[in-house]
Amino acid sequence: xxxxxxxxxxxxxxxxxxxxxxxxxxxxxxxxxxxxxxxxxxxxxxxxxxxxxxxxxxxxxxxxxxxxxxxxxxxxxxxxxxxxxxxxxxxxxxxxxxxxxxxxxxxxxxxxxxxxxxxxxxxxxxxxxxxxxxxxxxxxxxxxxxxxxxxxxxxxxxxxxxxxxxxxxxxxxxxxxxxxxxxxxxxxxxxxxxxxxxxxxxxxxxxxxxxxxxxxxxxxxxxxxxxxxxxxxxxxxxxxxxxxxxxxxxxxxxxxxxxxxxxxxxxxxxxxxxxxxxxxxxxxxxxxxxxxxxxxxxxxxxxxxxxxxxxxxxxxxxxxxxxxxxxxxxxxxxxxxxxxxxxxxxxxxxxxxxxxxxxxxxxxxxxxxxxxxxxxxxxxxxxxxxxxxxxxxxxxxxxxxxxxxxxxxxxxxxxxx
Length: 417
Description:
Low-confidence stretches: 1-8, 10-55
Strand order of the largest sheet: 1-2-25-24-23
Oligomer: single chain
Shape: globular
Number of strands: 25
């Protein structure tokens, strides 16, 4: 049965943007129910919603939202190939370890069985999902999730990526079959935060990119002996591309890396020029939007445009030009949680957004639209107050879908006014 609720998103052309200042602790980094595993997180009392210089433009699209169904702690979604002119079916993960096929026409959710055991807690659980470039014939999907260690390491955790065949897609009992390990974080460590574990295929379908967070430990981002705090680039079977930037260093771990010096990358996307962009959460301020280039070091934790949660300053990027500087920074933070590049397809619900990046915000409770220019500069163009933490955004054939965060989280379709 379809659950239909609508909410108008109003655009004011005459009044200035109202900036609401709220207190929060670690909500920028995780679900409110998450356990903080870094002592200084509890000291973060920054304002939630950052001021913006974005001008309210006369052509800013307005929309209403339609609620399709409800989830408990959803984390990611992706679309299955569409049939004829039907609305897409979505694959949606829940942190607690469930995967659903969602019929967006009816709101019906079908459970997919065969999910590996997931270590749920803090910011961890079942994570990202993408369909293989050859899904039409292979029916393969890629999933990320958190795995607990074994034996003496049973209280240590790390992200893992698998490939699996989605069997019984059109039945009442779909399942994962032929599960194949692809990659894992090394080393597993204590704590349950900053896994990142976003997945993205290259535009040519030849490579898999994985974001690997620094697990709230800071120093691993610069450590070439472990794959934490990096963006990873692999062949689709998990093997190492020979043209990765550190492939000749006689270090199998470093040979995985595409870029280093990252904190917590929760969104990656290729723009219309096939350039890779990623956003990551800063500490106390300094959320970043970065153009990701082969072999570059993005500086964490040596530089940041934010401060430590304790209040101790961190040198800004402009003090160390050897590190790649972000194209955009946000202070106070927006807590970016996912990204999708808008492109019209069978539909063109929001032509003003063509080629723009859509970013979902947690503490900012916002949908943020970022524009690019021909010189690879980027700027915040629009911001929409959604009134709820937004976990994920997905553009499909010119339609836009949002997932709220936490319990009783709605899957929303945006309907242009």
